[in-house]
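To whoever picks this up:

The nightly regression suite flagged Protein CEPU-1 as changed. Nothing in the input moved, so I suspect the structure step. Input below, exactly as stored in the fixture:
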Amino acid sequence: PANNIVTSNDQTITAPAELTLNCLADGKPTPTIFWTRVSDNTNVSMPLNITGGKNEESYRCTAYNGVGNPLTKVVKITILFPPKVTAAQKVYVCRGQSASLNCEVKGNPTPTISWSPCDGENLL
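Regenerated output under the current build:
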């Protein structure tokens, strides 16, 4: 059977990036190695194209040679990416009326959001 599976360690990367994870296993016959994305169990190949949008993703290395049970090991990737701001359309109000301003921000680490007046200029 396959034995002694060794993979890359858990990693933190900044997106966008390409990432190659390594996986080795011993056994007779020589095990076949393949990777799957844990979140949807999809087979993936190296290098991985990490684009951001998710804070983390896990990948499973499986080593199997047809004898006994497959060996698996999971590698967790923490993905850092800069803030992306999605703002609502322009809001027009008359003086003295109230308005709601909505802003969606994604990023890892979680961005700090602050609002400030802009003296008639566009805020975003």
